[in-house]
């Protein structure tokens, strides 16, 4: 075999894609429906935010960016799984595997920072409403998005630098639907324990750090509201409920994947489906069902379409 970066391994075999024809058809159908739901749901939110003037605010600017990121995160894995299953192809090239890993971690890092930005937005709206538009100015919102992308790139490249030069000369079977740093490092033909620790520490610290920061921010907001409203937290809970739900849906699988040293393959596969397919498809429903402004925008948009048919 030709060497790639000093390695004799030119491709990896994704064992999770090796299954019976009935299982393949089931996976293709489930992945297609979930991806279709993700794409249509995110596109709907984007169009709603762009064309409905009442949603031209910092919160919905960040929500639109989060929708784009969710769509991108799912697009790194789900379409390839569908095409591979359709073509009975369960291998991925070395370059393709590394590229997929980098995109997953870049986009994952971006999403974490955007969730922090959205928590800050809710803190400002609830605790400092009179200064909201001044604090959450367009420049600050754009700065949040730029910071998110810079953080995502640094997070991914800091791990990529350790992995790209590892020698891969033996086993090339990955018991998963996709490539990721922990699984690939285990296949290196060297003592990779220190690299596993570095990658786990990097992803684990970022995941746990972001999660606890978000939880602390929500607790801080609720404490302030409780003090100001003599114990009435109902409005604050309504405002924060969608964000808290999305945070738990996103971070729970991440913590199992990167904080747990060696999760069983069956759990790893199930968490993949949750993190890359189920969570992104649920997010639009969560924000739509629990947000009065979006509900109003949907009703007005539907009404305009209905009237347009009869005019």
Describe this entry's structure for a reader.
This protein is mainly alpha-helical and 311 residues long. It has a single domain, classed as Rhopdopsin 7-helix transmembrane proteins (Up-down Bundle), CATH 1.20.1070.10. Helices cover 74% and strands 3% of the residues. The chain contains eleven helices and three strands; from the N terminus they run βαααβαααβααααα. It has helices at 21-51, 58-75, 78-86, 94-127, 132-135, 138-163, 181-185, 193-228, 234-258, 265-289, 292-309, and strands at 11-14, 91-93, 173-174. Strands 2-1-3 form a three-stranded mixed sheet. The protein is globular. The model is unreliable at 1-7 (pLDDT under 50).
Q: What would you call the shape?
A: globular
What is the CATH superfamily classification? Rhodopsin 7-helix transmembrane proteins
Which residues sit in consecutive blocks of at least 5 with pLDDT less than 50?
1-7
Radius of gyration: 22 Å
By CATH, the architecture is named Up-down Bundle
Report the total helices: 11
Strand content bin: under 5%
One letter per element, helices H and strands E, the order comes to EHHHEHHHEHHHHH
- Which topology does CATH recognise? Rhopdopsin 7-helix transmembrane proteins
Largest sheet report:
3 strands, mixed
How many strands in all? 3
Give the strand order of the largest sheet, numbering strands 1, 2, ... along the chain.
2-1-3
Helix content: over 70%
- Tally of separate domains: 1
